[in-house]
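Please produce the structure of this protein holding iron/sulfur cluster.
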Amino acid sequence: MSNQGIPENPDLKRLDKDVEVEIFDAIRGPGEGNPVLPARLRPEDSFCFSCHKDIPCWNACCHGADVTLTPMDILGLSRHLGIRLREFLTEYTLPAIWDKANLPVAKLKMSGADGKGPCMFMVEEGCSVYDARPVTCRYYPLGLASVKPKGADHKEDFYFLVKESHCEGHDEDNRQTVSDFRQEQGIDVYDRVNRGWMDIVMKMASWRSLGGPYGKDLSTQVKKMFFMVSTDVDALRTFILETKFLESYEVDAEAVEAIKTDDEVLLSLGFDWMKNVMFNEPTVSLKEPVLREAISKARENMGAT
Ligand code: SF4
Ligand code: SF4
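Below is the modeled complex.
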């Protein structure tokens, strides 16, 4: 995902009128003019594109790329490199604010004093972490938008094409459907693990014009929690297992066992917890005595007896 250089596209902008949430994902690299093509693509729609080592622009897109790392990217890359999460975060990422949602995120570090040099994983042959490359790199040159029409129960995903002038892959005679492209790029597992995180980011983006959920900016502490959940499963595991979290929230015994070793289950609980903290969604439940105490405190604060 990238938050840089996303242009105001009149056709996509019109979505504002009929949707509750909207997000643009996976536009990688500095924007140039208006590279987002206005057509909405469905999984069965096709487009022409091919990227291969003999293309004249080989590696051009991996310089100064603006790559926001999703939770699954961070897990996958640190596992692939065989290093601890903290080491990965320090060596290869920079903290940033994703301003479309006003949330702290980790971005892939680019080399060069101005961050416009090659990606630290770029080698002459291409991407040295290809099997674990971030989902933004997998999606390129597609973008993802997820919308929830007013009154609808579910969000709908659709795609759009990003056509940057330096990318010659669009001129290649290789027509494929969005669905085939996604499969070839191994995107499904990323979307599955990141879904709860995407829900949060999308919701924050939709609240952005009002200043935050229910018109209030999130506290610094909540933003820090979101950053921990998004970037550091080790810290999240310690937080859940070694603080009063399990005394406060209902988490069944099977899930408690699973989160000791399963990062995906842990992340899923982390996202549910953040949805509860940030938006008051009923995704996790307080235990009865904690709930009673909270209600009693709230009544006291309102002057009730
Ligand atoms: S991770 Fe790989 S594909 Fe992505 S910008 Fe870096 S070198 Fe390019
Ligand atoms: S074709 Fe596009 S994606 Fe492939 S190397 Fe060239 S600029 Fe990058």
